[in-house]
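Quick one: structure for this chain?
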Amino acid sequence: MARILVIDDATTVRLYYRDVLEEAGFAVEEAVNGYEGLEKAVAEGFDLVLVDVNMPKMDGYAFLRQGRTMPELQAVPAVMISTESASADRARAFAAGANLYLVKPVRPDALVAVATVMAGAAP
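Got it. Here's what it folds into:
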């Protein structure tokens, strides 16, 4: 079973992603900011990380930049999901280490499809 870490400061967003992904057969863990996300990702290991941009303490860009320097996270696919839709936001996400950039809201079928492809295994 593929394991996904959802990093977002909004409880409703985390619960939405969890519900959709668990229904599709994925194992889901949550973190409320980049610091907690780094701690969990290094300690537990995941097949995919879904990360928000705007969060307190450590935003998604900082999470990706720092995570990409850590051996445990260098090869883990990361999808940045944000309300920011400008091409500059996408470019900044890819420069920080994102493998894919999605704009909120993400439809359930799209979320499952991306997770299936990016996690490298069916749920």
